[in-house]
Structures
1.
Amino acid sequence: MDKKIIAPSLLAADFANLQRDIEMVNKSEADWFHIDVMDGVFVPNISFGMPVLKAITKHADKTIDVHLMIVDPDRYIKDFAELGANNLTVHYEACTHLHRTLQAIKAEGMTAGVALNPHTNIHLLEDTINDIDLVCVMSVNPGYGGQSFIENTYDKVKALKELINRKKAHTLIEIDGGVNAENAKDLIDAGADVLVAGSFVFNSSNPTQTIKELKEIVG
Ligand SMILES: O=C(CO)[C@H](O)[C@H](O)COP(=O)(O)O
């Protein structure tokens, strides 16, 4: 895949001015919206539930990439399809029957992603990689924005890329956590296709310009 994707994470948006921030992303060079759903069980934080997600998807007019950091995600697959999610990512660590979950996501017309916590080895996807549209490599421990990037991510991305190529899969590699202008190019060079950026975008003085800067860096 040639086109590299920048996906601002709304977790870092200003919720007092959410519609303004969504419109900013709509008009920017960003490719996707990244939406983190946290349940306070799988991760030690709660983000937003269905009413807020409904308000977000009403205004967001780019590809909607939903990252579920929740236990038992199968319960909500249909709800996210109805909300307009284009990609639905579940955590490897939260799925007892990962293959079944992936099929259920696709049956609802979405692409299916699998996120890996920093401690989870990419080789656990050997038997499912051809069924996965996107692997989200967590480069922080999930739960909070604004954390420091884990350097081991580069080796992990390279190993995952090798697995994807060896299996002749068409899986995108997404990086989530601590992405900024300093590591973006190295991540793309390691094999990443999609960069999620929260704090780096929304905490900057000019988020539109920051998105543009990331796009220019990744090419
Ligand atoms: O999934 C996440 C944390 O669990 C977020 O997407 C992450 O918050 C990205 O934000 P930042 O760029 O601030 O690290």
2.
Amino acid sequence: MPAFEHPDYKNECKRLDTTLNYLKNFDEIINTQKERIDEAVEYSKSHYNSDNAEQFNELVINEALQVSMKSRLKNISRSLSKPYFARVDFTEEGLDKMGNYYIGKMSLLDEKTGEFLIVDWRSPVANLYYEGRLGEASYICPDGDIHGDISLKRQYTIENACLKEIFDIDITTNDDFLQAALGSNKDNRLKDIVSTIQSEQNQVIRADMWKPLIVQGAAGGGKTTIALHRIAYLMYNYEKTLKPENFMIIAPNRFFLSYISEVLPELGVENVTQTTFEDFAFNVIGKNIGKKPKLNSPHEKLSTIIENYSDKKSKENNNIIEASCFKSSLEFKELLNKYLKYIEYHYIPKEDFKVHDFVLFSYKEIQKLFLRDYSYLPFSKRIDEIKKSMINKVKYQRDKILDRVDREYECKLDKVRASMGDCPERRAQIIDIIDERDNLLLNIKKGLKTVIKDYTSKIPKRSVWQYYENFLINLSKLNTDESKCKLIDYIKDYSLENLKNKNIEVEDLSPLMYISISVYGLSEKINLRHIVIDEAQDFSLFQLYVLKKIVNSSSFTILGDLCQGIYSYRGIHDWNDVAKYIFTDENSSHLCLEQSYRTTIEIMNAASEVIGGLNDPRLPKAKPVIRHGDEVKVFEKDSLSDIAKDIDNKIIKMLQSEYKSMAIICKTLDECMKLKSLLKEKKNVSVITGKEKDYPGGVVLIPCYLAKGLEFDVVVIANASKDMYTESELDVKLLYVAMTRPLHELYIYSLGEKTKILPI
Ligand SMILES: Nc1ncnc2c1ncn2[C@@H]1O[C@H](COP(=O)(O)OP(=O)(O)OP(=O)(O)O)[C@@H](O)[C@H]1O
């Protein structure tokens, strides 16, 4: 209700004023402190003396303080326009006093009273707002479970520091606040949802960080949004032990990253790596790759598959799909393991480490160090460790060896001396022996200087690329499964042909990363403790396996929707496979986000019927939130230009409306281009090709596989004819993805008869 109509309006205004005044005061204090730190940093930099360790330490500390104050000021400035969004009144069991907890994006402590004016949405007590109902409730905090009673749950709309609306939540009311949030129009960036996080989402956000968490979420269920809120939550809870660079979120492509780029900063979180699998892979392999390859776009392969998919006889398509599936599998990883075992066994030279005849380490000893004692390290790092032992050995054996030589020659000299009296022959023999000894000592001394270098120079120095090439060459030999011979030959031939042209495909990245970390290890700059993967249904088991090896723990959040698995030929079909094959030793948690928040009941029901056509029990049905809109409209037209004419009108109408975004979704990029050439409104339309780094918003013409993950006020599916979308799994999933993109309106065109999979 409008705030001024609420009986508690005056008290709430007073509270808001108090909070704002405190915040302003706090802002000034921090600003003054920051000015002082800025000056100190400036001074240290302009009077820098590299010999002064104390000054250096001070500079490092002040710079860290500078960063933290900057982010604090940003949070305060955000809170100044909207300090909190909800309140919970909770009386703890055994205590008389009721606590009024105002929940916002940061906490604010009144230092005089010692009470919180605002509590952070991520704090334990704030859980009461997300999970608790009026009456008996409890929350978990580090001291244990706190039981008590909730007497009030209230939500606020505050705009520019002005109280606009107040909603009291009782057991029966619908969540008006959520409805208002869902009904609004979206621009070109995803937004935070701290004030309306729902209970099932809250459980995902607050789940244990150290256990693998697998989330199957409906289209529009908030997976992407929740993934980002979870990072903010984990960072808040592990603020003292973990840094932003310990977290990473992987999203499908760069322009999707720009679409989600505002959420973490809005939540006060900076410097978390937000990347794509492809970019991360190149970062991991780094210079060890040895060549600069060109990565074939995964979309091109999908486009080829899409175009030929309905043609069951397409042998080439079957080959592409089977090869892609096998290269992404753990079986392929096993072949690579076999190869790496061979490399490991032959990595060190088959010889003793010795100077002259003095064996410092036998081959067996080095082999034991390499294959057993240091087996937990990557190959090249094992050599670094062995080198350290060698250096020590040389250092401590040097004098002993020289002494031994001396002693041996003393014996020889004694023998000569004893064998005859002094005579020219004896003198000549003695001189020869002494010369021989001196030469030998010189050689040994020289040898001791270069022995380690000489030894390590015999270790082959191959780049990751060379290892991979060699692995592919030997692929048929490594394979023992006769039924796979043809497929293996096909993979070998086309992959080697690709490498010859310096090309690689996404499926090559996991093996390349695997080789790189097995042989060279990880750069120290990569220090990840938790990875969040969005759209994980499109990840292969091999990709997940490599990522797990990199994190070296099971601290993962994996979110996806099997119904949208358009890369299912290489992706995941069943979340149980992930739990079973990737996190074998840990018991992973599975959560489900059934509710869909994006779209209207009418649109969601139509989309659910489409995916339901696959009759696959592994594909759960989404439950739409109660929000009604227009029925989905389907138009059959005789020509593409008729479709384009209609779409032109829709674009004009949308541009004149309050809507901010519209997508015209085609099956492929070619189809997008064809349609664009027919549109009169083309100047108002941007075509998304997948190469963009920024998501432009407005009206876009976009292939379906790139629209995945995004949302728009209005969606037009350009041609859902019966030829375009068959009953194949891929076509059904593609249409489902397209139909679940709109927030408010969905129009479907068809050139001629519409597809049978559309129920409308
Ligand atoms: N609790 C919520 N309160 C308000 N809005 C929400 C809530 N949960 C989700 N939304 C909204 O629903 C929409 C869909 O969210 P999001 O894109 O994160 O879902 P998704 O599961 O990743 O979808 P998809 O798999 O279809 O790409 C967004 O506009 C988001 O803001």
